[in-house]
């Protein structure tokens, strides 16, 4: 049996990018970790490193999060082990740059499965447990693109808009039950997303690119402070304000130029 008093942090997409950084920063706090992703060897290597460096307990779960039955099975396995998840980092996600009609339907739907369906299922299952305990925190990793539809990022920006608005609603819904829900909306960051999404890296994007560490720090601080959302980085905040202050045709044109599309 597992010590029920132990505070566990579950990080999805923990094998790369922001997921690795979330794991490291929570490990520095001495938190016990559940690392979830599809790539087992990367998870095991990270777990070994964190155990050695921080003397914490780390559980590795190889899960295809795009499969809802796999998400449900993960939740059940942890419950059977009496593992209580106090912090859920909904970080797993997938993006592609390119004209909508150039992508196969399967690729677009796979993005929706991971970015929307999986995140919704994880939040429903673990959020219900948190509300029953009257305690818990959920961080949703959205994107700056969640604030507007961006040419050649049609499905990704729409998926992240869902994440942001879903998070905003739950921030108010679950607050009465002692559960904090916060959305992290990063801009372009040096996480490997550019290569994975086949994204064009323009000079303007290079100027605002952030490293993962300060982005994750901003997300954790915002979650601990009970904030609704956070946009890390001065340049990213400025772009977000521009989005609020200008008509859609204008800021979409500006973003298309910035993104090189």
Describe the structure.
The chain has about 260 residues and is an alpha/beta fold. It has ten helices and seven strands. Strands 3-2-1-4-5-6-7 form a seven-stranded parallel beta sheet, with helices on both faces. Helix 2 (about 40-55) links the parallel strand 2 (about 30-35) and strand 3. Helix 1 crosses helix 8 (about 210-225). The N and C termini lie far apart (about 55 Å).
Keywords:
single chain, 261 residues, alpha/beta, 7-stranded parallel β-sheet, 10 helices, 7 strands, 52% helix, NAD(P)-bd_dom_sf, SDR family oxidoreductase, Sc_DH/Rdtase_CS
Helix-strand layout with pairing:
Blueprint: E1 8-12, H1 17-28, E2 32-37, H2 40-54, E3 58-62, H3 68-80, E4 85-90, H4 105-133, E5 136-141, H5 154-173, E6 179-184, H6 193-196, H7 203-208, H8 212-225, E7 229-230, H9 234-245, H10 248-259
Parallel strand pairs: 1-2, 1-4, 2-3, 4-5, 5-6, 6-7
Helix pairs in contact: 1-8, 3-4, 4-5
Q: What's a quick, concise take on this entry?
A:
The protein is of the alpha/beta class and 261 residues long. It contains ten helices and seven strands. Helix 1 (17-28) crosses helix 8 (212-225), helix 3 packs parallel to helix 4 (105-133) and helix 4 (105-133) packs parallel to helix 5.
């Amino acid at each position: 049996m597992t010590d029920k008093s132990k505070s566990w942090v579950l990080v999805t997409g923990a094998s790369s990018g922001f997921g690795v950084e979330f794991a490291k920063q929570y490990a520095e706090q001495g938190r016990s970790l559940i690392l979830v992703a599809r790539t087992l060897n990367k998870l095991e290597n990270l777990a070994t490193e964190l155990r050695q460096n921080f003397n914490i307990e780390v559980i590795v779960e190889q899960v295809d999060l795009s499969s809802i039955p796999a998400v449900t099975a993960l939740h059940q396995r942890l419950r059977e082990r009496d593992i209580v998840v106090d912090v859920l980092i909904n970080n797993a996600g997938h993006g592609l740059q390119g004209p909508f009609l150039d992508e196969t339907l399967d690729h677009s739907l796979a993005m929706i499965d991971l970015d929307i369906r999986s995140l919704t299922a994880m939040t429903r299952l673990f959020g219900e447990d948190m509300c029953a305990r009257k305690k818990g925190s959920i961080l949703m990793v959205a994107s700056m693109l969640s604030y507007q539809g961006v040419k050649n990022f049609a499905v990704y920006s729409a998926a992240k808009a869902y994440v942001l608005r879903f998070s905003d609603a739950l921030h108010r819904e679950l607050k009465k039950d002692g559960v904090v829900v916060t959305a992290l909306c990063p801009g372009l960051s040096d996480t490997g997303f550019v290569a994975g999404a086949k994204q064009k890296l323009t000079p303007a994007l290079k100027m605002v690119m952030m490293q993962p560490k300060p982005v994750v720090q901003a997300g954790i601080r915002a979650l601990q402070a009970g904030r609704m959302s956070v946009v890390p980085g001065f340049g990213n905040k400025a772009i977000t304000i521009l989005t609020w202050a200008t008509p859609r045709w204008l800021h979409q044109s500006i973003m298309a130029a910035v993104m090189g599309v």
